[in-house]
Amino acid sequence: MNNVVMKFGGSSVADAEKIKKVAKILVKKKNNLKNVVCVVSAMGDTTDELIEKAKTISENPSTRELDMILSTGELISSSLLAMAVQELGEKAIALTGEQAGFKTYGRHGFSKILDVDTTLIEEKLKHGYIVIVAGFQGRNESGDITTLGRGGSDTSAVALAAKLSCDAEIYTDVEGIYSVDPRFYKDAKKLDHISYEETMEMAHLGAKVIDPRAVELAQKYGVRMYIALNTADVLGTIIDKEDLVEQSIIRSVSAVDGILLVTKKLVDQSIADLFSELANEEINIDVINETLIDGEKYVSFTSLVEEKNKIENISEDFSFIENVSKVSLIGNAMRNESGVAARIFNVLNANNVKFYQVSTSEISVSIIVDTQDKNKVMELFIREFNL
Ligand code: ADP
Ligand code: ASP
Ligand code: MG
Question: Where in the numbering of this chain does the Aspartokinase ACT domain appear (predicted)?
Fold first, then answer.
């Protein structure tokens, strides 16, 4: 029998009825002669609620204990799902991240997967069990529970698929990956195939349908991913190598809110020193520009609004622009096409849209605009590039 890893996100296991539906899907898959490993997220908004619970005790809880409380969300959903499968007369076992063999390293709350020892999972599969794994968690070298960062269950699923040499099927509350978030634009196009590279870029640039770390891991280990609706009866999106992907100029538009634009005049300080200071405070930094105006050197960069306090603590000389968003166009064929940038600037110009910054990668263009203009800009791009 072939292995398969199926992952169900929080909205797909949000209540007992949904958990029972997922259990039926797992049993059906098993009856189709598959060894089924299922990774689950915490039910609904449980993770947010657990964070709130921690905050009722401490505004700044220790990250070790925060990881411990957060890991319980996935323990509840995985045990309930195993019970639901057992109710259907099939053998099932729920495993914590540690029991499933997830060894992690790095900071609490943002830990990374070092390796997965799948001995126990494979033994249980051999004995006919459907194995349900608590996503988003593992155990570090000191024996502590760690979590992989928000949305991390996708990465748990791909890591297991890599180890078990099989596909990672990610089931969620939309039918697949679309050209635009279908909740934003109802006529968005569902994509049948998309490359790892484009998916990663979309995920980094705001398409929250998949965790970019999961796609990175999938590309590294050649794991084929499939994103589909949690009823498992509608065709979804395959994420695979580029050569399977039909080319088009621009495939997708996405957006990130809560961007902070930061500027500072460089006086008696090198740019290297400035960024060392920011790095020491672990401040999240994106696009950096250095400009010379009338012989004065200015440096500007983008960060996130939640980093503002930390940046202000470094020096009083920063100036900030808040309430800005990053709107990005992503497409594999962009690297071969000249003229895309011209079309973007023409559209923005013709519609009097003010923008602060433009950055590009080989397969994307990102524009920083006022958040109040974000929807308008997305709609203009959707129309211009027929998304
Ligand atoms: P899960 O709980 O299953 O992990 P998420 O909420 O993390 O689900 O991701 C699914 C959501 O991603 C969808 O509800 C959808 O609104 C959003 N999304 C954002 N961009 C896209 C896109 N380009 N294609 C599909 N879904 C998208
Ligand atoms: N439950 C975790 C979160 O909400 C992990 C996940 O859903 O993937 O971030
Ligand atoms: Mg998710």
Answer: 327-380
